[in-house]
Specification:
The protein is mainly beta and about 160 residues long. It contains one helix and eight strands. The chain has one helix at about 30-40, and strands at about 45-60, 65-75, 80-85, 90-95, 100-115, 120-130, 140-150, 155-165. The protein has an eight-stranded antiparallel barrel with strand order 1-2-3-4-5-6-7-8.
C-alpha cells in the first residue's frame, strides 16, 4: 500500500568543536601564585571524527511527522530514534543517538527529491545537546544524507563530521 508522506524522521549524527583554553596571565610571582590557586584549570576538548550509518524502521506517525527507530554503526554502535518532517523539497529531522554513557541529540535540515518510490535527502546536522558523558557534546555543519522508501518508510542515514566532547 502506498502512502503519501507528509513528514519523516531521521537519524543523524554529530560534529565540530572549538578547543577550550584557559589562559592565566601574570604580572609577577605573587600574581601567578594567586592565579594558580583561584583560577580553574582548562583542558582541550576532545574532537572525534564522526562517521555513522543507520538503518531506521517506521514506528508511528505523529501528526505530519514520521517516528523511526533503528541502530547506528560506525564511530558509535548505538540505538537511534528520529522524527522526520517531510516537505515537497526539504526534510527536517530531530535525531537522538544513545551511545553507552549518555545521549546526543541534534536537528537536521536537508534538501529532498523523489525518484519513483525513493526519497533522497542531503544536508547538515547540528548537535543541540547531550546527556551523561556527552553532556558537553557540540557540533555544527555536520554532513548527512540518506534515503526514505516511500512505501514502507524504511530510512537509511549517513552522517559525518567532527564531534567535540
Amino acid at each position: 500500500m502506498r502512502r503519501n508522506i507528509g513528514t519523516v524522521s531521521a537519524l543523524l549524527a554529530i560534529s565540530l568543536c572549538v578547543p577550550t583554553l584557559v589562559v592565566v596571565g601574570a604580572a609577577g610571582p605573587a600574581a601567578r601564585a594567586s592565579a594558580a590557586r583561584s583560577d580553574p584549570t582548562g583542558h582541550e576538548a576532545r574532537v572525534i571524527d564522526l562517521m555513522e550509518s543507520a538503518h531506521l524502521a517506521f514506528v508511528s506517525e505523529d501528526g505530519a511527522a514520521l517516528v523511526e527507530r533503528g541502530h547506528a554503526t560506525g564511530t558509535y554502535i548505538a540505538p537511534v530514534t528520529a522524527t522526520f518532517t517531510i516537505h515537497p523539497k526539504d526534510v527536517n529531522a530531530s535525531v537522538t543517538v544513545y551511545p553507552h554513557g549518555g545521549s546526543i541529540t541534534g536537528v537536521a535540515h536537508a534538501n529532498y527529491i523523489v525518484q519513483n518510490n525513493v526519497g533522497y535527502f542531503g544536508g547538515t546536522f547540528v548537535i543541540t545537546h547531550g546527556t551523561g558523558s556527552f553532556a558537553h557534546a557540540s557540533g555544527n555543519a555536520l554532513g548527512m544524507s540518506g534515503t526514505i522508501d516511500r512505501y514502507n518508510f524504511a530510512t537509511t542515514v549517513k552522517a559525518h563530521g567532527k564531534l567535540s566532547l
